[in-house]
Amino acid sequence: MESGKKRKEPEPLSGSSSDVDSQSEDEIDLAYDEERNLALLNEEHVDEDEEDDATADKEQEEEEEQNLDDKSKQKSTKELKVNVNDAGDKEELEQEFDFVEPNEKFFHGIKDRLKNFLDGNPYHASSLTDLVIKQFGAGNIITIGNDASNEDDEEGDGNGDDENEVYGFSTVISMDLYGQEQCMKEIKDFSLAKAKKFCKESQQLEKFREMLKSEKIGLFVNERLINLPPAIVFPLHKTLYDDIEWQIEEAAKLNEENEFDYDYVLVITASSEELKKKPDGGKKQRTEGKSAKERIYHKFEDELIREQSTVFFEFESDLSKPNKEKGTGNPNENFKVYRMISIVPVKKFYNILANLEKLTKKMFS
């Protein structure tokens, strides 16, 4: 698909969020993907009359695409040297990572990272994946450099799939603009249900409900490999901030509606707490004296987001609980996993994105 062109999205699937409870994740995504593939196939077969009409706008489109290409080139490729521990011996590994705009070839890689976005509950992950791809002007995909991929593939199967592998990504999606998408309804229903059960104060619960109902909310979609070094994460979020600033400025210049004009940002993420055995070797329990700041945040920026949140609540993740029937659960019994849901004022959120390296300096010093 050519850069700068908006593609048609499949119509949202019919049915309510309650329908999801009776379906497996595979059934949900299979139905959505069938509609999605049909829509994409229809796009590829453009009528000749449409092609003739499109010719008149060709020069304008090329100019717009050139502007987008120029902007994309500003997203620099980062060549990083990462120290890894291999069998106790430190050796230097040099790996080149690319920061690229979301596009169709990353669909499956993005979707894989979003499967547990709602704590393993079935939802339309393909729909959310499409929304991430649609945000090609705000956010990046972390993948490995093409040269590195080709070198690795010389000894591989010749498919060159590594260059499409998604190591991480971040973007912000308008819950107002895309509120009718099935995935957004499910995310809102999930968040409200958990707030009702786990918000400790009734005032916080009412505030959360009112915010989701009446405020302009952006959804922070931020997923990556848990062990990516900070040197890669810093530019990921800084370029997201720069992209959003650029979009806001352009909308103001053209006197257009700004989809990034949020009041607050909704964040759904996770952390872990270490467990310890009782002296008599009995059941494991939470380590005494653990505070919020001593939590193990799966994404280190989540600690800052938590501190700046207007509403915050958490609950033990279903993925942390063993499910013998399904054979799922936390593979590491030494940790308890928590899901955290926050609503953050947009100015504080943008400040975290723009100044993450500076704000987290003490963490890594």
What does this protein look like?
It contains 13 helices and ten strands. Helices cover 41% and strands 21% of the residues. α8 runs antiparallel to α9. It starts with 17 loop residues before the first helix and ends in a 6-residue tail after the last helix. Strands 1, 2, 3, 4, 5, 6, 7, 8, 9 and 10 form a ten-stranded mixed sheet that branches. With 365 residues, the protein is α+β, with helices and mostly antiparallel strands. It is globular.
Percentage of residues in DSSP E strands: 15-25%
The major pleated sheet works out as: 10 strands, mixed
What are the low-pLDDT stretches, counting only 5+ consecutive residues below 50?
1-19, 71-90, 148-160, 287-293
N-to-C SSE series? HHHHEEHHEHEHHEHEEEHEEHH
Nearest-integer average pLDDT: 77
User: What is the structural class?
Assistant: alpha+beta
Helix content: 40-55%
| Termini Cα gap | 43 Å
Radius of gyration: 22 Å
DSSP strand count: 10
Label the overall shape: globular
The number of helical segments is 13
Topology at a glance:
Elements: H1 18-21, H2 25-44, H3 48-55, H4 58-73, E1 78-86, E2 89-100, H5 107-114, H6 125-134, E3 140-144, H7 146-153, E4 168-174, H8 182-198, H9 202-214, E5 217-224, H10 230-253, E6 264-276, E7 285-286, E8 296-297, H11 301-307, E9 311-316, E10 335-345, H12 346-354, H13 356-359
Parallel strand pairs: 5-6
Antiparallel strand pairs: 1-2, 2-3, 3-4, 4-5, 6-7, 6-8, 6-10, 9-10
